[in-house]
Amino acid sequence: MNTGLKIGAHMSVAKGYVQMVKDAVNIGSDTFQFFSRNPRGAKAKAIDPEEIKEFRNMLSQNNITQVLVHAPYTLNLCSAKEETRNISLEMMTDDLKRMELYPGNLYNFHPGSRLKQNIDTAVEQISAGLNKAMFKDMHTTVLLETMAGKGSEAGRTFEELRAIIDKVELKDKIGVCIDTCHIWDSGYDIVNDLEGVLNEFDRIIGLEYLKAVHINDSLNERGSHKDRHALIGEGHIGLEAFKNIINHPSLCNLPFYLETPTDDKGHGEEIKLLKSLYKI
User: Fold this and answer.
1) Catalytic: which of 95, 217, 227, 270?
2) Most CB atoms within 10 A, among 26, 168, 201, 228?
């Protein structure tokens, strides 16, 4: 069995950076993601240089070459409230500076909710925030996540993501993370036309910008715009589609991150299942 699939789950940094690596390795992870700070707030864990040094050593010892740091859900660069946009910019700026302590990794964020603002205004605000937070010598790649399109979310279509990227100055530091549940819920048919969806992504954004995949099944029918994750193979996307996804030539070498509604043990079982389906 080929176990070359690079896959992991969302881990908790609350127990410490080093323990997080141990927990990830214990469930068979080759990578993992964690929140940069309180996902529903703004507070970040204090940085201990010695702990970060050991964290980097642990990653190296376990052949984990890249992890993904997820911005908090409260970060909203296209909020209709200027105060919220400013706080969001402060959080992202701080996160990207912190990540220079463990360089070469990925930083993922939800583009935001624009409320009653039009999408053009949201695109301007998001790209302006990115241009302020990102810096020339940074060693992190910032990822825009594809969204399900619930409410007034920005980033529900490839066109919206492309519009943001077009206005980002540091093109070599920006990318996209596809969330399988989100794009399914937003209307992209990754079950019956994965090739067509990826061709559309390539035509509009460019596959060179695709850097990671959140791999989640969906409780909803395609196009529902609801964003409700399901366990792998237990939703409307289904196991056969995930087999095709992880083995597709344009995706198979990317890191995959589980955000399914289960615990570490359950994620370990999903990792084992997906690795058994990986044929590259």
Assistant:
1) 227
2) 201
Q: Whole-prediction pTM value?
A: 0.96
Q: Are 177 and 214 in contact (CB under 8 A)?
A: yes
Catalytic residue among 10, 37, 70, 114: 70
Kindly tell me if the per-residue pLDDT of 3 is higher than 60.
no
182 is catalytic: yes
Taking only the tens place, the pLDDT of each residue in 227-262 is 999 999 999 999 999 999 999 999 999 999 999 999
**Which of 10, 156, 182, 267 is the catalytic position?**
182
Which phi and psi angles does 21 have, rounded to 5°?
-65, -45
Element (H, E) at 215: strand 210-215
Cβ contacts of 127 within 8 Å, gap of 6 or more:
164, 166, 167, 168
**Helix 158-167 vs helix 119-133: crossing angle, to nearest 10:** 40
Which whole number is the average pLDDT over 173-202? 98
145 flagged as catalytic: yes
**DSSP, residue by residue, 161-214:** HHHHHHH-S-GGGEEEEEEHHHHHHHT--TTT-HHHHHHHHHHHT-GGGEEEEE
Task: Report the largest interatomic distance among the alpha carbons of the chain, rounded to a whole angstrom.
Answer: 53
State the pLDDT confidence band at 280, using cuts at 50, 70 and 90: confident
